[in-house]
Design a protein that fits this description.
The protein is α/β, with parallel strands linked by helices and 309 residues long. The chain contains 10 helices and 11 strands. The relative contact order is 0.16.
């Protein structure tokens, strides 16, 4: 049995429980506050209250998707994990360029230094915390990755080879997934420990089959975003889960306070377990398959794999 690295320490893979696979527990920082005020998630009382509600609904683990310097607040994650008993995994890595100030080292760091930074945050401690990171988050643009994003993906793949740490990526509207996978695999990543986020923003089943056939896992988080339109996330899961039962995971990606019930928003973070799970079963998804999607698949994806050294 492998392990998942949380901010409070390593948890055996088979003890992970119900896991939300792409979350925003805390987001804070000057750049975010000034440029993305909607993404400011820093009321620790409200966050604690919502996570207690999630714990009561059976959610045990959340993967926080804010990497190094992008609004990550790892010591707050420690505090909230202690208060709520929620397992929280923090991320090393780099987000899209827009989440960093103009003079950030994002533009100048080279491949080797970036690998060293990621490895250090996974094996020693994150630069702003005593805790260690348990996932590498990297992000790609729409259609085609930039040169610097390609560097970030190469470094993520190499850091996984050195540490076994799983990788979580951001795709812009679900696009450029095959390019992301190609760079990661070329750099030595194990596709079973690579999770691509937001793929359900694209409805094309053939595209999903092509990406899934590489062995990576896909994270869907738009279930609550379709409004009056047909629920594309539901349709994709019904079509793909029987064929690729081990490769789909779910999350909320609720980066805006307007999605949190404790901030007065909707639908609240319990939506996935309280509402969408029953919707999936009523639409014909077998219960054991739903269990795999919520429990076993994230446990497999976010467990550390064998490292090279
Ligand atoms: Zn996100």
């Amino acid at each position: 049995v492998s392990f998942v690295r949380t901010v409070l320490g390593d948890v055996a893979q088979d003890q992970l429980g119900l896991c939300y696979a792409h979350e925003h527990v805390v987001i804070r920082g000057k750049w975010i506050e000034e440029n993305f005020p909607d993404f400011q998630l820093d009321d620790l009382e409200a966050i604690t209250a919502e996570l207690m509600e999630l714990r009561l609904a059976g959610v045990c683990t959340m993967i926080d998707a804010m990497p190094t310097d992008s609004g990550r607040s790892a010591d707050d994650l420690i505090l909230i994990s202690q208060r709520t008993t929620m397992n929280i995994v923090a991320a090393t890595g780099l987000h899209l360029r827009i989440y960093y100030p103009g003079d950030h080292w994002f533009d100048t760091i080279d491949d080797n230094a970036l690998v060293d930074l990621f490895v250090g945050e996974i094996t020693v401690s994150m630069k702003d915390s005593r805790a260690r990171a348990g996932v590498i988050k990297v992000a790609g643009s729409l259609d085609r990755l930039t040169e610097l994003e390609r560097r970030n993906f190469r470094a993520a793949g190499r850091a996984q080879r050195q540490t076994g740490c799983p990788i979580l990526t951001h795709t812009e509207q679900g696009a450029a997934a095959l390019e992301q996978v190609q760079i990661l695999i070329e750099a030595g990543a194990d596709p079973a420990h690579v999770v691509l986020s937001h793929l359900d923003r694209i409805g094309d089943i053939a595209y999903h089959r092509e990406v899934l056939s590489t062995g990576v896992r896909l994270e869907f988080d738009s279930a609550f975003r379709w409004g009056s339109k047909p629920n594309q996330t539901l349709q994709l899961i019904l079509a793909l889960a029987p064929e690729f039962p081990d490769q789909i995971v779910l999350g909320m990606d609720a980066a805006r306070t307007s999605y949190w019930r404790s901030y007065g928003g909707k639908p609240g973070l319990r939506y996935l377990v309280d509402e969408f799970g029953p919707i999936l079963v009523a639409a014909g998804l077998e219960e054991p398959l739903l269990h795999k999607i919520l429990f076993e698949n994230p446990a497999g994806a976010f467990a550390f794999c064998a490292a090279e050294i």
